[in-house]
Amino acid sequence: MERPSMEINLPDTHEEGKLYVVDSLNNLNKLNVCPDGSQHALDEEESTGDTGENRAERNTRNQCLFFVTFVLTLIVSLALVSFVIFLIIQTRNKMDQITSRLISEKKNIEELKKMNNMILKHLNQSGIK
Q: Transmembrane residues, as ranges (predicted)?
């Protein structure tokens, strides 16, 4: 889509007026060339006076922030995994203690059963006589 070139006859104005007219023409050109979203970005860039160096500094700062966040996340993850392993080991030790107690109690119960049977046999033998 071709647009006819517009010729504008500017009368001789003061220097300030010329700058205003040129700025207005630039804004019109941006409206015609740029889509709405990028126009907003261009307006922000002009208002903040953002230069390539500022963008590079911000980009470097963002990368550094990302790296620090990543390292902190890894450290926290490592701490959580270490804590879980510690809990698993503690649980295993407790289970071993409980198992050994159960085995000893089972032996005690079997000895008590034997003694009970012996007492019952003795009572039955003495009750028969």
A: 64-89
